[in-house]
C-alpha cells in the first residue's frame, strides 16, 4: 500500500509536466524573463495596475487573431489576409451604421463581412485550387483595396454609446475587451479540445489523406475554417472600432498578420499542420505584448521594434524546425 502511494507521488510531477507541456513551460519561462527585465528597467511604471491593463488591452485584438490563426495552421493552412479583413470589417460596420442609423445593424454587417471574406478565401483555396499562402496574399491586397475604396481611403466616424461601451466600459475592474478575449479563449479551448470537429481539424492537418479516408469532408472543413478566421478578424475589427469610434481602412496594415502568425508559431504550431494549442498561442501573444510594451516604456526606436518582431518570428521557426528534426517527424 505504501509502495503504491509512493509511486503515485513520484508520478505526480511528471503527470503535471505532461499536462502543462514542455513547450508551454518554455514560454512561461521566457515570459517571466521578459517581465523581470522590463520590470527592472522601469520598475516605476511596468508593474502598475494601469500598465498591466494596458498590456491586456493591447493584446486583445492580437489574441483573437492568433487563436483563429492557430486553428487555421493546425488544419494545414495559413491566413495572411486577417489584417486586411480587420480594416474591411471596420469600414463595413461604419458605413452600415451610418446608412441605417443603427449600431447593432452596423455590427452585424461588419461581422458578416468578415465571415464572407473568410469564406471567399476558403473557396479560392479549395476550388482554385490555390496554395493558401498565395490565395490569402492576393486577398490581403484585394480586401485592403476594397476597404480604401469604400470612402476614398478616408476613415468614417461612428456615433453610438453602445459601441463605445465595448471600448471604454469595465466589469469588475477589467475592460469589456479583456473579458471578450477571455471568453473567446475559453470558446476556442473547448472547441479544439472537446468537440469532434476540433479533433477532426487536428486529424486534417496531421494527415489529410487519412482524414479523407476516415470520412472527414475535407473541402467543407477547409472553407469553414477560413470563414471562422474571417469572422474572428471581424470580431477583432469590432473591438478596434469601439476604441477609435471610426472605420479605419488602414487599421490592419500595421503587421497584424505577422504578429498573429508569430504568436501561433511561438505557441507551438507546426507550419506543416496537425500541431498547436490555444494556450500556447496565448502565451505567445503575451510574450509579444510584454515585448511591445517594454520596448515602448524603454523608448526603443520603432525601427528596432520591427527588427525585434521579425527576429522573434525567425527564431520561433528555427526552434520549431529543430524540435521537429529531433523528434523525427
Automatic annotation (TrEMBL):
Membrane topology: Multi-pass membrane protein
Annotated localization: Cell membrane
Annotated TM spans: 20-41, 53-74, 80-98, 105-126, 132-151, 163-191, 223-241, 278-296
Domain of life according to the entry: Bacteria
Record keywords, A-Z: Cell membrane, Membrane, Transmembrane, Transmembrane helix
CDD domains: TM_PBP1_transp_AraH_like
Protein name (database record): ABC transporter permease
